[in-house]
Amino acid sequence: MSLRRLGADHIGLFQLDRVDPKVPLEDQAGEPKRLQDEGKIVAVGLSQVTVAQIERARAVVEITTVHNRHHLTDRGCVGVLEYCTRHRIGFIPWTPAAAGEPARPGGPIDRIAAARHTGPSQVAPAWLPARSGVVLPLPGNPKVTYLEENLAAATLRLSDAETGELTAAA
Questions:
Q1: 41-47 and 11-17 as β-strands: parallel, antiparallel, unpaired?
Q2: Whole-angstrom distance, CA of residue 158 vs CA of residue 10
Q3: pTM for the complete prediction?
Q4: Which residues contact 40 (CB under 8 A, 6 or more apart)?
Q5: How far apart are CA 120 and CA 86, in angstroms?
């Protein structure tokens, strides 16, 4: 159905969103694998998963990406990020611009942004790829101005000292 709606002959990346606890994960991963074998899907990703779930899915289909909540002040899935880093699986964090307390006026994000002549909304997402080379922050872009800010964030490379300061701040 997605192919028809998109007017496409294949989907580049199919993200399996949320594992259904009522359906065996192997079955849930098996359906995208079948579609991949038919040439309808190129790559398969998972969302909101644990390391154990990634491993179970990988027994069925190659997993290209994982999309979990992870940002400067919410590092609850750092084990998943470490797993993805070790296995070279792309990691797409939710709400990468979320910064919480470190974004307060005079806080580390504010200081780094001022020193870099940029905005705080560029600093928080730049912390993520500094943590691992497999991270691909995809912030939401409901307005053109947000898109422009997020594109600017993609070019910002934090120093080791700045990365360490942000890591320690949250």
A1: parallel
A2: 37
A3: 0.82
A4: 3, 9, 10, 11
A5: 30
- How does pLDDT run across 29-63, given as a tens digit for each residue? 999 999 999 999 999 999 999 999 999 999 999 99
Phi-psi sector, 119: left (phi>0), alpha (psi -120 to 50), beta? beta
pLDDT band at 156 (very low <50, low <70, confident <90, very high): confident
Residue 70 — φ and ψ, nearest 5°?
-165, 125
Sign of CA dihedral 149, 77, 165, 157: negative
State the DSSP code for 135: B
| Whether 128 contacts 98, CB under 8 Å | no
Q: Residues near 87 by Cβ (< 8 Å), separated by ≥ 6? A: none
| Bridge pairing between strands 11-17 and 63-69 | unpaired
Closest by Cα among 53, 44, 117, 59 to 83: 53
Residue 15, SS3? strand
Angle among Cα 29, 33, 37 to the nearest 5 degrees reads 175
Nearest CA to 65 out of 32, 38, 109, 101 is that of 32
Cα separation, 24 vs 33, in Å, equals 15
C-alpha 11/C-alpha 6 separation (Å) is 9
